[in-house]
């Protein structure tokens, strides 16, 4: 099977665009990625489009109506916060399977202000986790980590300080504002230990990538800009004898990470940068351990010692992360891949991770009564 490479990738600056349409946002990112690759929509053999909130509207086909209807197959994907990453993985699989050699993947979402995961169907977990909301779920995850390992409120808050600082270096981030530790800890409490400044930002956004088989990359002379996809893995919740209403984001992440490292033929110590799913500050610390960046119970030490800050051993969320760059659900997975690919190309400007050769992206979505969808990609400088 051919290796698969990213030869074009881009994203719009995340923000709020109430006067724009979802297909229009998707079209903008798609054209940017095509321009980055030096190709047109006529060169694409299939389209995989990720969108969650408007998924029943055939967003992929409506996007093509704006940039060029060429008759190619279109697959519309919805998979919670892993939606964009799932569309990207489906594009990767199609090339791996030999169906196509050039494919476009797009992720897009238009979101209002308000509470992430505040609505939806399914059984209520009241009495088990106390609330049906995402902030409460990730608050419990943080509290459990604190109970087991002594992780402090201040350590969780330092995640937000770090990521907001990183965002000041990213021109595509929704917010570009420093938030000192005292400000983060003193902000409105949403669900302890997550204050308002420790919660991800609901925004509108889109991102897109052009994937290509290795022989075509070489034939077109695109290897100098290509990024190799060394692993693409997904998981959901494993069976447990005692099922809880709250999905097990950690188990899903650990399963996908194990598979990704094995497929890529590397260990976590070989990863130079990570874009992970910091939907809340508590989530980032827990995922340090889930991804094998440190042993269980050592996440607080990593944030205290600056290991995951720009300039540290393994910078995490140099984009600003979901906490500051923003979290348009359907676009996040490809946006994370854009960030890592930009560093591997050496084009990240003031936030460049020097010497970056291998990067990892991680998203995980789900909710009470829904289970999880976790996607991890390992990317390598060509």
Strand content: 15-25%
Helix content: 25-40%
List how many beta strands DSSP finds: 11
Q: State the end-to-end distance.
A: 17 Å
Query: Any idea of the CATH class of the largest domain?
Result: Alpha Beta
Query: How much is the radius of gyration in Å?
Result: 19 Å
Domain Thiolase N-terminal: 4-178
Domain Thiolase C-terminal: 247-366
InterPro entries: Thiolase, Thiolase-like, Thiolase_C_2, Thiolase_CS, Thiolase_N
Protein name: propanoyl-CoA C-acyltransferase
State the gist of this model:
With 382 residues, the chain is an alpha/beta fold. The chain has helices at residues 22-37, 59-67, 83-96, 134-149, 153-167, 181-186, 214-219, 249-264, 281-290, 299-304, 321-324, 332-344, and strands spanning 4-11, 47-50, 74-77, 102-109, 189-191, 194-195, 205-213, 227-235, 273-275, 358-367, 371-381.
